[in-house]
Amino acid sequence: MDEILLAPPVAFVFYIALVAILSGFGRVLAGASSQSPAKTSTYSAGESSPTRPAVPGYRPFFVVALFFAVLHLGVLVLGSGDLSSVTGIYLVGLMLALIALILG
Hints:
By secondary structure, the protein is mainly alpha-helical. The protein contains five helices and no strands. It has helices spanning about 1-5, 10-30, 35-40, 60-80, 85-104. α4 (about 60-80) packs antiparallel against α5 (about 85-104).
């Protein structure tokens, strides 16, 4: 029975059912809504939103994404290995790569 409940398709169906139930319960708790222009307008801390784009480009995003990709994959490799001198060398290389990414 446990193997059937933990099978990914069955667990996914249970997850979708649970999300549907929680979403319906949340809608009941929220009550009826009324449309107003304030709900669809942008608002931030009492100021009007800027007209220029918030992110000037993708370059800062790629650096941050590469940093976290290297960090996560490095920790995964370190966690799946044993404590040896090769792991220490790999850790030093990982730290140097992350420092190089931070400094740009």
